[in-house]
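Colleagues,

For the teaching module next term, I've prepared a clean inverse folding example: a structure given as tokens, and then the sequence designed for it. I'd like students to try predicting residues themselves before seeing the answer, so please don't circulate the second half yet.
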């Protein structure tokens, strides 16, 4: 399986296609050692063999000039003996005595190196390739050109220049990491790439999801554990060979495989003594080293260090990094050099770095690292604590966690740790917990807090409250409402209400948030919603009295969420905005993000898509700037940003956002992002739906929102595929985990009713409509719901219309209400795709009632939207409806003016021309052939009296686009 190389293989097969058509092509494939050049060329060779062509593959070797034309000789020798070659190919090779001198059995190995002999050989090679090309395309591969001798480089240049109409594709591969500044192949590559028939393919390392797929393929399709994939990708940096070696070693516990270490160290051993010493110093420094530090620690003179660095950089082992430093080109190279150091040498170098960093007030993180390696534990401890706090300040929670954990591991090994750290052990551990939360690792935060509660001093009540309040917070993030409420209630009861304290205020705010998770189905908390506003006001008053502005903001958000469902006129977006600003001023970024999310979400629920988009963009920028991109609200804000653009019909923008939502996911947070991409892919009939679902499915049981989104969209996919029974399986599974009053049930029920309408099952349809009505009208505490967002109202209207359809009464009025509901009060706006889907059903219902002209108008509007969005399943359904109901031939009233002579189909084509579609895209949108699209365009130009598509488009915009 060729993973992650489709574009590169397409470039090579494109060159092969040109060669097969009679235009010779040369492609130079570059990439680091192990990145997959041979694998890629092997895939191309299989394509050539499948087409019946000739394949000649030869390899260079690290033998200097002692074996001229080695890859050509290798290619000819292999091809002549390859049973996969046709008899004709082997016969042609055997008939060329001039080239036999290059074969192992030849009697003259030097004739090709003289000028005359070289000309003779070049000409004979050209003739041989031309003759082979008469029977089919020829692929000549010269591998490892970084080791090519002078004669082979000249042959490469000659063939690239003179091959023209021969059916030959010449491919050369080389290692970019071996091409130092003075390498003889470098000017050859630069010269060849200026030729018109020569192109380049640069192989990049794998992305994280490609590494995951690669490792899965190595394991016969069994996905490796997420932490293994993450570690292998980080260490290999996406290099396939390195990844395979590290993955194999991971199974045996080997840190750095000997074969891989030897390969990496071989490059270092080519350097001079001074350069090797500098590389060892750099390896101790870390991935990056400052110029001044490496000079001082190496012990060499300035001139010697300068010469050594030039040699190292020219061999591409270190690369300049910024104005005053260098970094290893690959982290594994640094790891191999570091592991090869003697223990005493390693300790002395670390101590030298630590002394310089301490004297120069250097980075706390670097000082901690070098001090620990030099066994100076007190300095390492203090520096680790300082490094953790610095990492928190700059929004790097993963790094902060690493530093705090190191300090905690040293706590018992250093004198006076509380004095050195400026805090006690438990509160330092709480800082580590906070870093877990900021990194999106809520489960680990919960696990650690539980252990801290077991060991904390029970007499320290304030600390006990702090630990329980933090635990309740992360339990809420994990939707573990009952345990969160129990824990928060326990914290509230540990301190008296008077005098007010920030700890008790925080505990009250956590308790209120837990109650919002709707405990109506939990015996202990059933009916406790009555207590929530009182508790929230108490938390707000205590927070204000003690200056805990972040706590006050959090309680305000909870109170706003409570009142939102009960007070229809409440301006919740403004309330959430105030809470956000208050939390930002207090420096409480977690609460600020929660408030920012609900501020944007509330605007979205009210149909203010522009305002919601602006609010979400601002919140996402704040999230990334605060290092909270992987936190719960960091992830959910990215989801909301995508959803807003998807809803507004801005699918090009939405697709750009979804491109960052990985497919091969292994964690719930990643899977949630991936699930949102399904909105677009299902609606557009994307090819990646099946693969994305395959990766998400194992995580359905870990996150309710994930299951709701992905299984709901899986149901829609099944309906487009004509499988309503499979759709109902997904619908039932989702409704089984949603609480009756959860408004998410409305959309799922509407989707299920679509399936029941297809199956004609009336009684089951009645149950689903009842479920949708309950969710729309009732709060979790059983009271009437005062507020339901515009989208929720629209889905309820859809459910009512689908229910009638299931009962055989496809009511146009119900579908007209659905269209209006999804427009959000703005005709032509609102939820663009769902408006189009509702118009499809409205057109169908009108056609069934005999209102053909009205049906045609709704049908054309739906077609226009589906084409603009690229919603292929909907467009296909509309095409089917148009054919069955003969709607495409209905004459629109608006066909007048310069467009009166156009047929309905020509008006459809003109609309797409005006939107910039070429003939191929027109053909795809209208389900016709490109040739037919071309004929329509020619007819349009003639009828409109214009000479170009641009003029036709300008006329259409100026006169008003036709409506059919």
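(Answer key — instructors only)
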């Amino acid at each position: 399986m060729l993973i992650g190389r489709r574009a590169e293989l397409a470039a090579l097969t494109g060159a092969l296609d040109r060669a097969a058509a009679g235009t010779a092509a040369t492609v130079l494939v570059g990439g680091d050692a192990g990145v997959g050049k041979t694998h890629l060329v092997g895939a191309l060779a299989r394509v050539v063999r499948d087409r019946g062509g000739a394949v000649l593959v030869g390899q260079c070797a690290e033998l200097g000039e002692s074996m001229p034309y080695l890859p050509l000789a290798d290619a000819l020798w292999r091809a002549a003996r390859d049973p996969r070659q046709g008899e004709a190919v082997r016969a042609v090779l055997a008939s060329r005595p001039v080239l036999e001198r290059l074969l192992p059995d030849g009697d003259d190995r030097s004739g090709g190196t003289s000028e005359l002999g070289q000309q003779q050989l070049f000409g004979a090679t050209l003739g041989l390739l031309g003759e082979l090309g008469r029977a089919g395309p020829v692929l000549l591969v010269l591998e490892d050109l970084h080791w090519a001798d002078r004669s082979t480089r000249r042959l490469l240049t000659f063939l690239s220049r003179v091959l023209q109409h021969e059916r030959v594709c010449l491919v050369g591969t080389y290692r970019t990491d071996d091409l130092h500044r003075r390498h003889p192949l470098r000017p050859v590559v630069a010269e060849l790439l200026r030729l018109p028939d020569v192109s380049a393919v640069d192989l990049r390392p794998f992305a994280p999801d490609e590494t995951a797929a690669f490792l899965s393929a190595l394991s016969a399709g069994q996905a490796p554990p997420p932490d293994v994939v993450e570690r292998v990708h980080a260490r290999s940096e996406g290099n396939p060979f390195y990844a395979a070696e590290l993955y194999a070693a991971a199974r045996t516990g080997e840190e750095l495989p000997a074969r891989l270490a030897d390969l990496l160290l071989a490059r270092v051993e080519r350097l001079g003594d001074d350069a090797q010493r500098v590389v060892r110093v750099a390896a101790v420094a870390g991935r990056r080293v400052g110029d001044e530090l490496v000079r001082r620690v190496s012990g060499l003179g300035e001139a010697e260090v300068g010469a050594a660095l030039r040699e190292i950089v020219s061999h591409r082992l270190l690369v300049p990094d910024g104005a005053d430093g260098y970094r290893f080109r690959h982290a594994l190279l640094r790891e191999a050099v570091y592991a090869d150091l003697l223990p005493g040498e390693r300790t002395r170098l670390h101590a030298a770095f630590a002394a310089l960093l301490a004297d120069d007030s250097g980075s706390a993180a670097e000082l901690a690292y070098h001090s620990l390696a030099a066994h100076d534990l007190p300095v390492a401890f203090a520096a680790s604590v300082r490094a953790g706090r610095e990492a928190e300040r700059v929004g790097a929670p993963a790094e902060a966690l690493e530093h705090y954990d190191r300090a905690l591991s040293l706590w018992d090994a250093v004198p006076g740790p509380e004095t050195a750290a400026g805090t006690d052990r438990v509160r330092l551990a709480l800082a580590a917990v906070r870093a877990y939360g900021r990194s999106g690792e809520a489960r680990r935060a919960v696990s650690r807090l539980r252990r801290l509660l077991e060991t904390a001093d029970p007499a320290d009540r304030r600390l006990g409250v702090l630990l329980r309040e933090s635990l309740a917070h992360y339990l809420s993030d994990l939707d573990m409402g009952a345990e969160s409420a129990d824990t928060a209630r326990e914290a509230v009861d540990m301190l008296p209400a008077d005098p007010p304290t920030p700890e008790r205020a925080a505990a009250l705010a956590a308790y209120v948030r837990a109650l919002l998770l709707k405990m109506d189905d939990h015996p202990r908390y059933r009916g406790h919603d009555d207590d929530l506003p009182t508790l929230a006001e108490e938390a707000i008053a205590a927070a204000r009295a003690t200056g805990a502005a972040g706590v006050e903001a959090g309680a305000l958000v909870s109170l706003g969420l409570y009142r939102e469902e009960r007070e229809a006129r409440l301006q919740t977006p403004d309330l959430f905005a105030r809470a956000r600003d208050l939390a930002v001023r207090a420096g409480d970024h977690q609460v600020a993000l929660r408030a920012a999310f609900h501020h944007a979400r509330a605007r979205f629920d009210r149909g203010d898509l522009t305002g919601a988009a602006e609010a979400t963009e601002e919140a996402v920028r704040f999230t990334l700037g605060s290092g909270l991109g992987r936190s719960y609200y960091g992830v959910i804000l990215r989801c909301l940003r995508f959803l807003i653009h998807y809803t507004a019909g801005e699918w090009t923008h939405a697709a750009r956002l979804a491109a960052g939502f990985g497919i091969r996911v292994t964690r719930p947070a990643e899977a949630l992002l991936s699930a949102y991409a399904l909105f677009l892919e299902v609606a557009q009939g994307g090819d990646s739906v099946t693969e994305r679902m395959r990766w998400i499915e194992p995580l359905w049981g870990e996150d309710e929102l994930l299951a709701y989104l992905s299984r709901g969209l899986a149901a829609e996919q099944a309906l487009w595929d004509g499988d309503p029974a499979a759709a109902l399986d997904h619908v039932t599974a989702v409704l089984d985990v949603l609480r009756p009053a959860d408004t998410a049930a409305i959309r799922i029920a509407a989707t299920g009713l679509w399936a029941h309408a297809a199956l004609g099952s009336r009684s089951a349809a009645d149950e689903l409509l009842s479920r949708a009505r309950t969710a729309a009208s009732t709060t979790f505490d059983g009271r009437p719901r005062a507020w339901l967002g515009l989208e929720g109202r629209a889905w309820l209207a859809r459910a009512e219309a689908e229910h009638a359809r299931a009962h055989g009464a496809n009511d146009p009025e119900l579908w007209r209400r659905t269209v209006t509901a999804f427009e959000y009060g703005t005709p032509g706006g609102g939820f663009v795709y769902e408006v189009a889907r509702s118009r499809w059903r409205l057109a169908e219902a009108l056609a069934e009632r005999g209102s053909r002209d009205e049906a045609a108008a709704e049908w054309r509007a739906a077609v226009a939207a589906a084409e603009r969005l690229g919603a292929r399943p909907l467009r296909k359904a509309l095409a089917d409806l148009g054919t069955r109901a003969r709607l495409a031939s209905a004459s629109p009233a608006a066909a007048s003016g310069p467009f009166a002579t156009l047929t309905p189909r020509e008006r459809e084509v003109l609309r797409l021309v005006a939107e910039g579609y070429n003939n191929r895209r027109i053909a795809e949108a209208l389900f016709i052939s490109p040739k037919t699209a071309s004929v329509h365009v020619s007819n349009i130009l003639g009828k409109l009296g214009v000479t170009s598509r641009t003029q036709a488009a300008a006329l259409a915009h100026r006169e008003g686009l036709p409506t059919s």
